[in-house]
Amino acid sequence: MTRYVSNKGGGPAVDFETCILNGRAPDGGLYVPTSLPNITHEQLQSWKDLHYTDRAVEILSLFIDEPTMPAATLHSLIERSFSAFYHPKKIPTPPLNTKEGVNLQELF
């Protein structure tokens, strides 16, 4: 089970549900996972051409345990969250004009 701790170092480790419901750790810090998953090159390649929602489910599932939020529920939540976004890619990632091969997400 993925656990989350404050980035300020205070308070106990908590589960995903507690992390989300609390919003911030008791010491005012942001919750971060205690460890990051290993992602293989093959996984990255398999995600490359996925629709935004499917890719988000694959990535977020690494941090949200299935019993807490089943993949189908997560998929539905993400799909509904981005349903009003006008761009077909949901969040465009245009190339950075000053550095070849680098793209930025437009989050405004």
Features of the shown structure:
two-stranded antiparallel ribbon; mainly alpha; 108 residues; single chain; 2 strands
Structural shape: globular
Radius of gyration: 16 Å
Unreliable runs, pLDDT <50, ≥5 residues?
A: none
Distance between the termini: 33 Å
* Number of DSSP E strands: 2
Give the helix tally.
4
Q: Give the percentage of residues in beta strands.
A: 5-15%
Task: Give a topology summary.
Layout: E1 4-6, H1 16-22, E2 31-33, H2 41-47, H3 52-60, H4 71-81
Antiparallel strand pairs: 1-2
Describe what you observe in this structure.
It is a single chain. With 108 residues, the protein is mostly helical. The chain is 31% helix and 6% strand. The chain has 4 helices and 2 strands, in the order E-H-E-H-H-H. The chain has helices at 16-22, 41-47, 52-60, 71-81; strands spanning 4-6, 31-33. It has a two-stranded antiparallel sheet. The radius of gyration is 16 Å and the shape is globular. The model has no long low-confidence stretch (mean pLDDT 90).
Summarize the structure.
The protein is mainly alpha-helical. 31% of the residues lie in helices and 6% in strands.
